[in-house]
Fold each of these.
Amino acid sequence: MMASSTICLLSKASKTKSWLWHRRLSHLNFGAINHLARQGLVRGLPKLKFEKDHLYSACAMDKSTKKTHKPKSEDTNQEKLYLLHMDLCGPMRVESVNGKKYILV
């Protein structure tokens, strides 16, 4: 008869393994990574509990928000030719007299 042994029902992923899979899955949040691991939806992803111990700097920058600009109270571009709309066209099959293949319209 075999001796009784304790079975680990839940194991925690190491810090490096957690961040490795976080980066491999395009900085996916850890709740979603745990869901993928439980369901076995990603080949090679170990069935461990993934937790973050600190916020990754790239993720912190991505989650930060900027303040919005105040709307202008008056229209400042009243002068003629203050604002120009242009389009670049080319390359043209036939060169211009100066040998150019692109034009601004």
Amino acid sequence: MWPLVRTALLGVCLGAALLLGTPALRVPLQWLEVGDRPEVADAIIILGSGADCATGRLYSMTRARTDRAIALVRAGYSQRLTVTDVSGAGGTCVDAAAAQAHYIRERLTDRRAQVFRLDAALDTRSEALRTQELAGARGWQRLLVVTSPLHTRRAKLLFQALDLDVRVIAAQEVQFDARLPTVAHRLSALKVLAHEGGGFARGVLNGWF
């Protein structure tokens, strides 16, 4: 048994060395990305990523997603956006959805824009469910879903599994340089890859796809 364990550990170490020492990570990372083109839609769904509890400032990922959604509004794709309460009902953290809505209103001069709120959605699956409820109540058909590049494929699968007509639009990547020039960038990318892998595993185990 021990020789097998040692062989497995050696394989893991060699794999990690390969991924961190070379840009080989690009292959699995590219698979995670879906490059949909934006189309005119009933609403733009900004997937949540929260705000700093101590300062109340939106995380850089949240700002990147929100900025992409604002650009879509300015380009005429929709006048409706959603923001997500990722803290949960009764949470003690800052109200990220309110902070995000304020961020949008400060930057959108077109007062026709409407901001809707998805409450207590703690993961992408629950965001998809809240979106399904809101879209049904409002009669929305086509939706643009804005999220981070490496989250696009999983998000699209989760929304489409609920029979939602979505185009998933990637925001700017802010967690690492997509060229993966250094070990530090590759390590950050590997963390995202692990997170997405866990998300896919959870989705498969729960029958969400």
Amino acid sequence: MRVAFVGQDVPAVIERKFLDIETSLVAEARQFGGQPKAERILSLIQAQNELAEISERTRSVTALVYPTLVGDRLEVLVIPPQTKGTPFLRIRYDLRPNQVPELVAALRSDLLDPTSQDYLMPAQELHRLLMAPIDAELKKRQIETLVFVMSGELRSVPPAVLHNGRQFLIEEYAIASLPALSLTRLQERDRQNNRVLAMGISEAMGGFGALPAVPVEVRTVAQATGDVFLNEPVTVQTLQQQRQQNRFGIVHLATHAQFTGTTADGAFIQLWNERLPIAQIPNLNLDSPQVELLVLSACQTAVGPGLGLGGMALQEGVRSVLASLWAVSDAGTVPLTLGFYQELQESRTKAIALQDIQQQMLRGQIRVANGQLTGVRGLGALAVPVAGTLDLRHPFFWSAFSLVGNWL
């Protein structure tokens, strides 16, 4: 194994690497979705100081991880809190040509079969390449939350599913993703505004199939403090009017979406008899009033440049987005989204809430069988329109969703 360690002996190299990556990611975000509403290029020491403050507030020591492919070289830059030592860079030179892209493609393909365990080989190999070189340092510095800032093909990898031969990464760390630290609003979560605007399309629409579990999802999400709109009222006009008339901290969209390219062209969210083009998201003024959390319970909303539709929403002022890396059946989506909301009420951070529900699913504590969802903390048995049993222990279900943006 040929791995180089670059640490405190060459701080200028680390500083330049950090600034180069952030500047490049911000430029990519501009190309994808226009001028971000929040943009600030932090120095390395500013980033470390912010991480130290966040780690103290949340009682979860947090580090940024920047894996980058440079030709056939893999670089992993780790930025810990200022209180946990200096940043460091690990560089692998022993890669075969196209090794990482091929592993990423294999992992993605294998994860899409919920009856197969074939995903373990690429998940373990990617862990060996990405995580093994930094694992000892993470443990030494007592890191508990990892925030990944990916680029290129690596964005389509769910870090939660990386496997060290004994356990998944989500069993060791809470995990979130950023399009760039410079594009992220890191204010403390507004815990007082938990009101939910829940909108969903359950009927076949726009060439997409029906989503029969959506009514259960949106009604349960909003049953305590929220408003529900299902099918025909789910329009751009309704979304804008409701946002103007009410202060919703959370917007939950359970519908299809599509992202097919390297720009915002052709990307959209399916509403009732209309599509919301991603290029029109700025017209929604998602930062006025502030949306604390946007949940996109839809297809592949966290892939692509800048982390896809989720990253685009962040650029327009949303603090955090829960979005998917691939299409999951609506019945398979319900356990994670409902469980996430239940955990969010008490969790120190959104990242920890997602970690908790993902662990419960992979351990078999939450079940879908014989038309019923059981095991979600705080909820009784719920009827869901699915025949047979879903094996929610498989990462096809629990690793599909990624928390993008402010993880607090």
